[in-house]
Structure formats: structure tokens, C-alpha cells
């Protein structure tokens, strides 16, 4: 039985519509796959590197004042505060700003007397006589202060270390040199690395005879500055009234490198 022309036309339109819809769906799925997973697209990757020699612009160190004594807490606090204030006044006299001196810790803890004995037994009734409990015999006050020395005062770092000991610090430690604003330096190196990678991608596309498509992904790695740490861990130099000469401290430098990897679509 022959199908009327009008119905044939309707069937043809339906088939064409279905085919167009299927093609659109396939194209959409393909584009969606490409958008969520670069591995579905034809792609290539390039790397760029930003590098510089970083010279530290600040030094940091901490000093600690430890005061031990009896049960008169008020006297201990007064003594600890006096020693700490003397050191802080010395540091300020060397041109260190108040905002660069920060109290990082203050602790007061009891000291105990422990009794080393063996429990004894009363012969009359067999009861056990226990050892006496530990007793508080005094307190220890520990105050720790961090000091930041800026680049213009690097020449006096050694004098500061010796001076805080001479003025009553029990310990000086954690001296290291670093960058005060590392994020700014990292961003500068990051921009250099990305720009280098972009130029490399353009050159590869030109040589390979294809067009540069979308940027599909960007990843970053890097080597950041780690500077040598110095330490005068204990202020034993002041025993007997003799102090060690000021140490010569050099800030040095460190290479900072940031690498980026860009993945581009090939068109």
C-alpha cells in the first residue's frame, strides 16, 4: 500500500528532526566531556619557570627569661618583669621599633618536691603508712619574646644577640632570615612563569601548524626560600661575668623558583 505524499513528508521531517537532535546531543556531550575532563580533548602541555635570587629583608629571633623562686609569686613576677623590661629597653635603644617586639608566651608553673620512699606498715595493726604527697615548694615564670630585625639593622644582629644575654636573657634561639612579604615575591615569579609558558605554547602551535585552543588547566609547583637558622640556645655565656663577643651573622641568599604547567586545547 502506497503511503500518501503528505505522510511521507511528515515522516521525513520527523527523521531529520531526530537526527538533528541526536547530533546536537552528541555534540553537547562531547563539549561537556571536554569541559570537565581535558583528556577527552586533543591537548598539549607546556611548562614555564619564574626564578630569582631572594635576599632576606628581615631577621627573627626569640629570647626567654626564666625566673625560679619560692611561693611568693608576686616577687617572682616582679623580678621576671624587671629582667624582661631591661632587655626590651636595650633592644629599643638599638633602633628596633616597638611593633617589631612581640611577647609570644608567658607561663607560670609550680615546682614540686617529691618524696622517694617505700610505704611502711604499722606493726600494731598492719595498716600501711603511705608516702607523703608531692608538695609545691615554689614557682617558675617563663616569658618568651620574639624580635624582628629589619634589613637596615642587619649589621647589629650580632650585638643584639649578645646584648640580650648580657641584660638577663636565659636563652636566645630561633634566629633565621626570611622575606617579610613572601606572597609578593611568589606572585612576581608566578607571573613570569605563566608568561613564559604562554609564549612557549604560541611558538609550539605555530610550529605544529595548529591553532591554540582554550586553556584547560593550570598547575603550579615551586621551590621557596628556606634560610639558615642560627641559635644561641642557652645563655651560659654570662656565667662568671664574662660574655662572648658578638657573633658575625650573614643573611645570605636563596634561589626562589616557581614552575607552572599549562594544558591547552588543540584546534
CATH-assigned homologous superfamily of the domain at 56-180 and 231-250: Protein of unknown function (DUF541), domain 2
Broad structural category: alpha+beta
Biggest sheet descriptor: 5 strands, antiparallel
- SSE ordering: HEEHEEEEHEHEEE
| Radius of gyration over all CA atoms, rounded | 36 Å
Given the structure, what is the number of helices? 4
CATH topology of the domain at 56-180 and 231-250: Alpha-Beta Plaits
CATH class of the domain at 56-180 and 231-250: Alpha Beta
Q: Name the assembly state.
A: single chain
Give your account of this protein's structure.
It is elongated, with a radius of gyration of 36 Å. Among the domains are: 1-36; 56-180 and 231-250, 2-Layer Sandwich (Alpha-Beta Plaits), CATH 3.30.70. The chain contains four helices and ten strands, in the order H-E-E-H-E-E-E-E-H-E-H-E-E-E. The strands form three sheets. A five-stranded antiparallel beta sheet has the order 3-6-2-7-9. Residues 229-243 have low confidence and may be disordered. The two termini are 51 Å apart. The chain has 267 residues and is of the alpha+beta class.
